[in-house]
Amino acid sequence: MTPITYELIKTCKQTGARLGRVHTPHGSFDTPTFMPVGTLATVKTMSPEELQEMNANIILSNTYHLWLRPGEDIVREAGGLHKFMNWDGAILTDSGGFQVFSLSDMREIKEEGVHFRNHLSGEKLFLSPERAMEIQNALGSDIMMAFDECPPYPATYDYMKSSVERTSRWAERCLEAHQRKDVQGLFGIIQGGEYEDLRKMSAQDLVSLDLPGYAIGGLSVGEPKDVMNRVLDFTTPLMPSNKPRYLMGVGSPDSLIDGAMRGIDMFDCVLPTRIARNGTCMTSNGRLVVRNAKYARDFGPIDENCDCHVCKNYSRAYIRHLIKCNETFGFRLTTYHNLYFLLKLMEQVRTAIAEDRLGDFKEEFFEQYGLNKPDAKNF
Ligand SMILES: [Zn+2]
Hints:
Blueprint: E1 5-11, E2 18-24, E3 27-31, E4 33-35, H1 48-53, E5 58-61, H2 63-68, H3 72-77, H4 81-85, E6 90-93, H5 97-103, E7 108-109, E8 114-117, E9 124-127, H6 129-139, E10 143-145, H7 157-177, E11 185-190, H8 196-207, E12 213-216, H9 225-235, E13 245-247, H10 253-261, E14 266-268, H11 271-276, E15 280-283, E16 286-289, H12 309-313, H13 316-324, H14 328-354, H15 358-369
Parallel strand pairs: 4-14, 5-6, 6-10, 10-11, 11-12, 12-13, 13-14
Antiparallel strand pairs: 1-2, 2-3, 7-8, 8-9, 15-16
Helix pairs in contact: 6-7, 7-8, 10-14, 10-15, 13-14, 14-15
């Protein structure tokens, strides 16, 4: 009996996008959905109460970072990550693989796992499928991710092939090492870069393990947008239709819509929270850099079409002032708005699927966001 189940509610007749619901031991959430990222057991500057208020039902946290600080023993002693951070909704943890490959240099990939150095202290560390499962079992997330190799983009075919084969062997070891199958679901990660036959091989290997959900990894790593869409076009049909499909590391509004249209149910990205701390906002009319001088005397809201409490109560001029002065409250306001904006966008996507008009919605949204202009910024 798996603790994670997927219920397909409806398929959009215009696009094939899926409207569904994922059930977890910590509640259910409607899909397609966006998961705010809480790297160190906090979505930077947001309280769990605020996340609830904006209807976030699932957040993501990072195994690698929590392993280093405060260490999984402390989280286990606290009663698990939900209790530790006072978040009662669902939590997904990544495996640490991405950080090992992106943050640390001097890494050595071996069959048993990866030897590397702590990006903070330089200390030698080792992460393996078994260790990644042990840490995630201690954290107690509802959805755990298999430990995979994240090859760089671009990678040669031969490198990618041996990497995919290793990721499949590691996924088997993860399943074997997973100690709490009744309360935590393990998702596999389909790799293979832009090579269709390797994505197919990866999907077949992982689907044979009958895991409760599957992710697509190795995208949003610097490849052009049309490459990502092409990979999604041939990869999502390889994924079981009765299980959730998660596209890792994607959070720009256009990619969320493009992904949903290709049958993706779950997304996560640091983009909305990271750019918020630089004073950049996502709005219905495209991106807005609120720290720019032209907003110094602009007493209107960040986005006149947004009904979040930030847009109802605070002006561009005030938020600009706070951010220019490095005031924490300024970062809180832009972060709240950006997350609200993306969660609201996913709600609009779900409504459009329910009404069989996601294709029309995409056209309208892209036009208003400025994505149809030749010099459009990618978010
Ligand atoms: Zn707003």
